Amino acid sequence: MKVLVLSYRDVAELADMGEVVERAFHEKGLRRVQMPPKVYLFFNRYEGDSRAMPAYLESLNVAGVKLVNSHPRNPLRYNLPTVMAVIVLYDPETGRPVCIMNGTWMTGARTGAAAAEGVFMKFNPLFLGGSAGSKTSTIGVPRSPP
Predict the structure, then answer these.
(1) For an engineered disulfide with 63, which of 6, 56, 113, 144 has Cβ 3.0 to 4.6 Å away?
(2) What is the model's pTM?
(3) What is the CATH code for 4-137?
């Protein structure tokens, strides 16, 4: 079984978060997305947490789970980012993993793209799509590893 593995740099070079977020919002609005609440593990001893975030986009026939941490003291203590993530995509028909990717860039970019998309939709109720990519370019999403 082959599984595609993508690094931080691979994801940053391949992903167009504006397009991804716009499509996901559209699909969720049509009720074709399953996205149950996050599951948390709290590491009080280390002042951090871990979250599991599953999702299934029916029309795209893709499912996945993002595992993301938040450890605010990482930068000072360990010279690591506060937030790091891994995303596993799998075939919903068979359950076969198809991709394991670094999710750190995507997590930050998705947050910014979702915020931009939300603001755009609030102030443009006739929004029909097509310009999310230009919106995300204005929010300063980095395209290279930290």
Answers:
(1) 56
(2) 0.73
(3) 3.30.1780.10
pLDDT exceeds 50 at position 137: no
**What integer pLDDT is reported at residue 36 of this predicted model?**
93
- Which residues carry out catalysis? 66
Q: Identify the DSSP state of 105.
A: H
φ and ψ at 92, to 5 degrees? -65, -25
At position 40, the amino acid (one-letter code) is Y
Task: State the DSSP string of 9-76.
Answer: HHHHHH--HHHHHHHHHHHHHTT-EE-PPPEEEEEGGGTEEEEEEEEEETTTTEEEEEEEEE-TTHHH
Q: Is 2 left (phi over 0), alpha (psi -120 to 50) or beta?
A: beta
